[in-house]
């Protein structure tokens, strides 16, 4: 018996399942859209992970029990077994937590049936999972998912979509069922775990909400992408909308210090944080820092936590040394 199976057949089935999930979700009239898409996507991941194992000649079966049939790994165990073979640039933790949230939805779909607006969270989790799937597929097997899909879709709808962040932060708690509240708590726990581990939260949940406008009306567009600048300059044009910093940059310095606590077996202090921010010029990047025009308020994004946790001990030491010299050079010299 071939305990590793055929990775080519597993891979073909994985791609077929993910494409089916996309096709089902994009059907204009489909009352069981979210549930079916999640089932197909989890199946696609299970097949993809088994293909990774098979390619590396690892077994995809549990040890056989007496008088019972052979059983292949679940997606959870497939991910656990496949971790050593995944590309180093792709962290399995946020991928696992993303799939666990989708699995929770699949296993308890009946409890979310009448939850108004909950589908926006399912969409965000699904879309993030598809991006993760695409990256693992390309980096492991050299195949591009976009080559398997005809993207000529007609993105029209009768009602504007609800913003996932608006749904998550809604104050109308009584309107949310206990199942929804529990799911949001699980999402919060997953986000905290991924953040504290220094992993990429973008592989757990990413908000995809893109509106395309004519380049003549860029002032109202969320994102404008073109092959050329209308002014005649070379290169693409990208215009991004400024978002509420209370959402994108929720952290103050003290909150970051408290969240990290210790780094490379040394207490993480405000001085250490200030040294890293200065050394790597984080305040100049909107990805990490937002400052009020009045200069009275500075806040940071969750990406700062990931950035700091990825620094080596040598990086932190260099930041502290250089920052100390920087402060010393700024001190006014006493007149002799």
How does this structure look, described?
This protein has 336 residues and is mostly helical. The protein folds into three domains: 7-152 and 159-203, no CATH class; 215-241, no CATH class; 246-330. The chain contains twelve helices and six strands. A two-stranded antiparallel ribbon has the order 1-2. Strands 3-4 form a two-stranded antiparallel ribbon. A two-stranded antiparallel ribbon has the order 5-6. The longest helix has 23 residues, at 33-55. The model is unreliable at 210-242 (pLDDT under 50).
Summarize the structure.
The chain is mainly alpha-helical. The protein has 3 domains: 7-152 and 159-203, no CATH class; 215-241, no CATH class; 246-330.
**How many structural domains are formed by the residues?**
3
CA-CA gap between termini: 88 Å
Query: What is the structural class?
Result: mainly alpha
As a percent range, the share of strand residues is 5-15%
User: What is the arithmetic mean of pLDDT?
Assistant: 80
In order across it, which strands form the biggest sheet? Answer: 1-2
Feature tags:
single chain; about 325 residues; mainly alpha; 3 domains; two-stranded antiparallel ribbon; 12 helices; about 50% helix; globular
């Amino acid at each position: 018996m071939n305990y590793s199976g055929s990775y080519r057949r597993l891979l073909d089935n994985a791609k077929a399942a993910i494409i089916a999930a996309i096709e089902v979700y994009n059907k204009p009239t489909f009352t069981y859209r979210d549930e079916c898409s999640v089932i197909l996507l989890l199946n696609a991941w299970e097949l993809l992970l088994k293909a990774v194992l098979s390619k590396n000649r690892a077994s995809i079966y549990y040890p056989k029990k007496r008088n019972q049939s052979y059983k292949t790994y679940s997606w959870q165990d497939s991910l656990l077994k496949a971790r050593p073979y995944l590309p180093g640039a792709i962290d399995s933790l946020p991928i696992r937590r993303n799939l666990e949230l989708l699995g929770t939805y699949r296993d308890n779909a009946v409890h979310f049936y009448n939850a108004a607006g909950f589908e926006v969270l399912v969409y965000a989790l699904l879309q993030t999972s598809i991006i993760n799937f695409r990256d693992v597929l390309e980096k492991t097997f050299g195949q591009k998912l976009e080559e398997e899909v005809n993207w000529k879709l007609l993105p029209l709808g009768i009602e504007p979509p609800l913003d996932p962040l608006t749904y998550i932060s809604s104050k109308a708690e009584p309107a949310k069922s206990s199942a929804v509240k529990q799911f949001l708590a699980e999402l919060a726990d997953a986000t905290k775990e991924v953040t504290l581990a220094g992993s990429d939260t973008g592989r757990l949940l990413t908000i995809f909400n893109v509106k395309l406008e004519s380049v003549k009306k860029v002032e109202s567009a969320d994102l404008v992408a073109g092959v050329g600048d209308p002014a005649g300059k070379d290169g693409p044009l990208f215009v991004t909308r400024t978002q509420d910093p209370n959402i994108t940059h929720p952290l103050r310095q003290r909150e970051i210090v408290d969240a990290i606590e210790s780094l490379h077996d040394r207490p993480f202090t405000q001085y250490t944080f200030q040294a890293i921010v200065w050394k790597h010029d984080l305040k100049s990047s909107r990805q990490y820092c937002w400052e009020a025009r009045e200069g009275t308020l500075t806040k940071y994004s969750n990406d700062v936590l990931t950035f700091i946790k990825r620094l080596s001990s040598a990086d932190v030491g260099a930041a502290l040394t250089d920052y100390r010299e920087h402060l010393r050079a700024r001190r006014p010299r006493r007149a002799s």
